[in-house]
Amino acid sequence: MLKRIIGLLFPQSPPEPHASLKTTGSRITVSAQDCTVITSNYYEESSDSDGLEVHMLDGLIGLRSVEMREKEICYLSCAYQPDTHTHMELLSPYIYKDRMTVSFLLERHKQISIYVNPADHREYYFDLEFMNA
Q: Which domain of life is it from (predicted)?
């Protein structure tokens, strides 16, 4: 029951905030060579660790037995110039893959589609569905 409630409160993949731009926005096609892969690290609980109930009970008595693993996370940076006087850097949402995998998938796909709101260039959506293949 508790796992179900937590699953509803914190879904695995939250909905993309600007995904509707795929149907309403202006499409920009960017070459893979024009994008920069930027990496960062985050920490994640080891998947072979005990369940949530065990961690809660351990927390009540002050025992911390969680193994954390460092993992690599990436995002893409692409330059965009909506007009002659404006230069913007578009940043993708986080991609939970390592740099080598992201670079390989980019090279294989060759281009990325970015959908921009014509009324407000600060709203955009990276179409990264090919990363899940």
A: Bacteria
